[in-house]
Amino acid sequence: MTLTPIMDRDALNRFLETDFPQIHTDGKVFDVTDVGPGTVVMRLAPNERHLRPGGTVSGPTLFALADVAAYCVVLAHIGPVALAVTTNLNINFLRRPEPGPLTCTCRLLKLGKRLAVIEASIFGADGEDLVAHATATYSIPPR
Amino acid sequence: MTLTPIMDRDALNRFLETDFPQIHTDGKVFDVTDVGPGTVVMRLAPNERHLRPGGTVSGPTLFALADVAAYCVVLAHIGPVALAVTTNLNINFLRRPEPGPLTCTCRLLKLGKRLAVIEASIFGADGEDLVAHATATYSIPPR
Amino acid sequence: MTLTPIMDRDALNRFLETDFPQIHTDGKVFDVTDVGPGTVVMRLAPNERHLRPGGTVSGPTLFALADVAAYCVVLAHIGPVALAVTTNLNINFLRRPEPGPLTCTCRLLKLGKRLAVIEASIFGADGEDLVAHATATYSIPPR
Amino acid sequence: MTLTPIMDRDALNRFLETDFPQIHTDGKVFDVTDVGPGTVVMRLAPNERHLRPGGTVSGPTLFALADVAAYCVVLAHIGPVALAVTTNLNINFLRRPEPGPLTCTCRLLKLGKRLAVIEASIFGADGEDLVAHATATYSIPPR
């Protein structure tokens, strides 16, 4: 499976801003930092709202990071199709993240006509500890 | 498996307010409405922050509802152990919810010494359409 | 969602025998025992091949039971479409089953044009203990 | 997380033969081919029993491959603890495998005191096409 992205980092970030403004209600929290063949890297700079006591990032925030990053890796390879929707997301929480930014690396496991399957690995601020791991399925509307 | 809750609705809602205030940042959004043997029902009254264009409730909000409700059904049966943590959550998104409150019914599938497994069904405002379905695993700290 | 089955118990068992003979390599192990609106009940009579030391039924056998029963509840409602395929299956193993037959109750959570989502509950020989719980997604070929 | 295996390939294959003979009922089907820090590679040589019409390997066989390989990567790092049990397995089926042997690469995402989380990638005979992808949780008995 050779995958070639057709949207780059800036195009993805612009698309999130214009078509998905609600994820930026609290400032620019989600940021695509890299795009490659079958992959996207997204950074999350958490604010108070995303934290739990002790400074750890909340579960729903980790879920949102995996979900938005998975959406981006799909869009990067099929173009800005706003109607792709998550049908399934399975997430394992592995370690409590330290306070600080998180990085999510997403990889397309499959890009079919109707379904895309994505793996998402979320790393802590040190870039080494795997904080959470998810697999997601997106349904792709008929083109 | 006979399960007897040891925290009632009011005790659960008080616990959420005192130990989990961050989920109420935007007003009282999550509300335990019923507790039974092995079950908890939680209501979500979404505000603007939880909505996507068209008035539909966002995926991360559905995730948070399933996760908090699962936490409550565990606490209801083991007492206020703040350190129970989600280790896995698998969610299927079934239908776009209509605008309006959502109801999540949680059921303990297993309550072991180390792990609890919970099923969560999220219904739309009409109380009939199944909007999302999740299973979650919580790790229970040694008592 | 009102669901009306269009294949009954005998039609499903005949379909399994003619189109899916490999699941009966070791004798008639899988048996549909009941069909209702949105539901199918399947019985597994394990033989030596399905057991682990101590007489407990193996994980792959529990997986196969959930998967075949999920397939049957889809077929029961869309007709004998041999090409429906599992795209995702998430299974929680809850208790070691006692030796003896197992019963799997399947329920359609969603029956869309492209995807069906099914919940499967596997009970032990006593009919009360929940041994395993699964959710599965089937992709439905265009009709 | 630095992981050092304490069982090598031959030790794992011997353990499977002596403690898990039932997986070899039909001949030596499962074979550990490589062990590394946090990883195990397992080969499956399917026989008639594992095939579906058209020569494709069945879903339960792919499940069993992911499950046994995940078990081996846990054992490789904690030693031959026969009582580690799968508590959750989530599998995505991505492509119909071509006839021929399959290879499963397993990676420890977390090795805790109580739980291990493993990622399993199953490749087809060509060694390139990703046929299925799974994540599994194993419960580790107190040592």
Automatic annotation (TrEMBL), chains A, B, C, D:
One GO MF term: fatty acyl-CoA hydrolase activity
Keyword list, A-Z: Hydrolase
CDD domains the UniProt entry points to: PaaI_thioesterase
Matching InterPro entries: ACOT13, HotDog_dom_sf, PAAI_dom, Thioestr_dom
Keyword match Hydrolase: yes
Keyword match Hydrolase: yes
Pfam families xrefs: 4HBT (PF03061)
SUPFAM superfamilies given in the database record: Thioesterase/thiol ester dehydrase-isomerase
Domain spans labelled Thioesterase: 54-128
NCBIfam families xrefs: unchar_dom_1
Similarity remark: Belongs to the thioesterase PaaI family.
Protein name: Uncharacterized protein (TIGR00369 family)
Organism of origin: Shinella granuli
